[in-house]
């Protein structure tokens, strides 16, 4: 009998005990020998000047690149003759690593074995999941940085937390009984499924959250917003028990942030990384996004691979020693900021995390419509419980809409009018009412699904 069948057939308390055991084993890897050392390092480096941060970044790069050329077969074979011993100022002379190359040749990148390291799988929202290996030191380092970020808002492991991410934890019996969560009682984490976020079930999610009374919420912003929007629509007054909400893995729009903060009466703090091991971007107490220079190197490039203020993100990650990422085109885009921040964190600022490079709708008349503008287009449209926009043809877009009971003819007309302003008069706009829109295999929800992005100039 498979582990999944054993889990599915076990009593609830056994399932939850198994989750606690799984987490205990995972945490042993995350909080290993180097973790406390790294926590102290990042605590000591809070508030250091930008020149000092750049000096630390240079030192970490030298160590990382030396290990990369010493241990990774791919870099030994492809680049050792030309780039071994390269220094940070010359990094841009190295070729950019495309995602397809990493997927097709990933085992050549490995500098350690699965047995010696920690295997991580990406969500696979665009196809086959990518399997990368972290060294144990990588994993300790990454969680030290994450925990340093969350600790600034009072969080530590063991605080009662609601977690909404892509964990497949439910059984058919759970769904039949309207139970969309499982609890790790050892670490006080209740995991809520993001695969069942729809109007029919949101009342159960919300009732349970109010009963559980977590101090923190962490997870996908679309899932947290769905619950918040449901509560606002139904006039539910959520008790003021949440100290902070941490969002990750999806683009957080201003509309999402506003709805989440209004309903849960708690501040939202965003964070960016990726399953492959990208460097971190953390939000501070002033709600400014900071590139964490101690975690890696960020390049923002245009279509000609030249530096720009707004463009695709190419990263070199110091915590990817198991599967080294050097100038890796991660498939996301950001917009840099020239402002400074008074929070005490002197890392450079990001104005906006734009999300996946294909998270846009393209209009031949008006160009790209990015996710933030997409979110703004429906702020004054009533009756949308959930929405997804699909573009499979340059001159056509399809809207899938889950009607929450108020999407009438006036709503349809207003939505079409808003989108005519954005895409012009020539595109075909189709609005289709559907009973539900499913999440991806990763548990994430994609507001935009664009299959023609590669055809866009």
From TrEMBL:
Entry annotated with the keyword Ligase: yes
Regions that span the bilayer: none
UniProt-listed SUPFAM superfamilies: Acetyl-CoA synthetase-like (SSF56801)
Source superkingdom: Bacteria
MF-aspect GO terms: ligase activity
Keywords carried by this UniProt record: Ligase
InterPro entries per the UniProt record, alphabetical: ANL_N_sf, CapK_Type1_Caps_Biosynth
The keyword Ligase appears for this protein: yes
The name this protein goes by in its record: Phenylacetate-CoA ligase
Source organism of this protein record: Ulvibacter antarcticus
